[in-house]
Amino acid sequence: MAKATEKGWKPRTLSVHAGARRSQYGEVAEPIWLTQGFVYPSAEAAETRFLKAGEDEFIYARYGNPTVAAFESRIAALEGYEDAFATASGMAAVSGALMSMLKAGDHVVAARALFGSCLYVLDEVLRRYGVRVDLVDGTDLDAWRGAVTPQTALVFLESVSNPTLEVIDLSAVADIAHQAGARVVVDNVFATPVFSRAAELGADVVIYSATKHIDGQGRCLGGVILGSRDIIRGTVEPYMKHTGGAMSPFNAWVLLNGLTTLDLRVRAQTASAQRLAEALQGHPKLARVIFPGLPDHPQHAIARSQMGGPGTMLAIDLAGGKEAAFRFMNALQIVLISNNLGDARSIATHPATTTHQRLPDAQKALLGITPGLIRLSVGLEDAGDLCDDLMAALEAA
Ligand SMILES: *Cc1c(COP(=O)(O)O)cnc(C)c1O
Q1: What is the edge-to-edge ordering of all strands in the sheet holding 286-290?
Q2: Protein residue closest via CA to atom 7 of ligand 1
Q3: Do 222 and 287 have their domain in common?
Q4: What is the pLDDT of residue 323?
Q5: Residue 147's CATH number
Q6: In whole angstroms, what is the distance from residue 390 CA to residue 321 CA?
Q7: Between these two residues, 1 and 60, which has the higher pLDDT value?
Q8: For the chain, what is the domain count?
């Protein structure tokens, strides 16, 4: 597991080699162990394994599988965590981490700028089970200080929020939480495993939707929960293995290979995002260009100090509101209208009418989800082509 890290390999090396499990055939590419279960050499061996499965011993694919374990080892090594549990989707990871770490009567403080499904889990599901949840402005450290008390069990935040790209001062929030004895759980999708420094900044648990940059080619769902061996095997695994949110071996194989090229893809996509943000800034049809890599971003300094790069996502706010935003999207020739992100294909999303449609208007306004706001996920196309596409569409808007 962390063996590869101990050799001092750099992330690019880990992303190619860490966690590989070769069979007796010595295959070069990782095999897909497409099996739900495992055969034991004897009844005694089955009894022993059910009592305590050893390292790299498997029982049932809902508990673990060699291909899934390869994915878990590789991402854990990359992120600098002792262990990982892979899940069927990003939301299986978010709900699994929260449900396994919390109990009735616990208090949770979360940043209010959240992915819609995360908000549902915190606001509806956890409350229904007697967990007290307070939502705060994640960028306001005094709000965190005011909300976190010695009764707080857990703090939850998206390190960079969707879709308005607020960057939270993770090390400051982690200090506040840890002083109160609370654990810090970070949904780290927008930061990406390439740029994240969440482990060293104090996140006890990090969650990714692997559906996004880790696959990066829009093929399958997946998620992962990362943390200490104690949290992952002691707290998360018992809950996950009995409630059934396991990752399929096929998806684990796709995502394992996604990790191999993740670094190159994310850096190329981020370079294009920076170039596009700079080209769009000051355009007369735009009220705002939001990108953590622009010096005028409110948390530009925090982004620089806590992430290795500003990421592949940007947001633009068309001054002409919803009508202009729709004209802009409908005029795009290369950029697709969809709602995935981190994909090799550039994607435009109108949060107010899609991903965040269900939020009341007042909450949209509070979160900065204006009628003209468009979220752009920058892909792997030629940056010049993308720039031309966006500029032509702005002309049409
Ligand atoms: C997409 C996403 C999720 C959910 O992931 P799925 O794989 O779609 O279940 C959670 N959090 C954030 C920030 C996301 O972008």
Answers
A1: 286-290, 313-318, 373-377, 347-349, 336-337
A2: 90
A3: no
A4: 98
A5: 3.40.640.10
A6: 17
A7: 60
A8: 2
